[in-house]
Amino acid sequence: MKVEIIDATIEFKPVIKNLYPLYLHDLSEFVSDIDVSDLGLFNAEVSNLFWQKDALFPFLVKANGKLAGFTLIASPPYTSKETDYMINEFFIIRKYRRKGIGRLAAFEVFNKFRGKWEVSELPKNLPAQLFWHKVIGEYTSGRYETLNNGTKQRFINTDLHWHILEKQ
Known about the structure:
Helix content is about 25%, strand content about 30%. By secondary structure, the chain is an alpha+beta fold. The protein has one domain: 3-Layer(aba) Sandwich (Aminopeptidase), CATH 3.40.630.30. It is globular and about 45 Å long.
């Protein structure tokens, strides 16, 4: 399966906005204050900052040319001081899960941005924790640091070497 990440320039903002309620639906299982309105709608506001700031990077995920999800990547000043890049949001449509699409999309994003990475999951979101540990473990050949009871991973991917971030 061909998986690609596409720069989601401003003309693609409505696409991410349309996908965002599906993402919130999935997160509502793990976050008690995500709920629908009286009209049955999620508040699907996607921050305009992703299209206004050079340090934020929105991408669409495509699988064999079909829309399969999105990811929003942050860099300083929108990350912790210890990292260069962070996965802010990552969503794959259910139809495309467990087919390696999320894994390949994550690899593409990691390869696009070299440096100190941080990925975090919600404490109750065990499926996301399992996914990211597996993906990052494979990507780094097991050379990554786990923090916050397994809900945060850090690694460095450079062309020259791999190594675990030193504990702060």
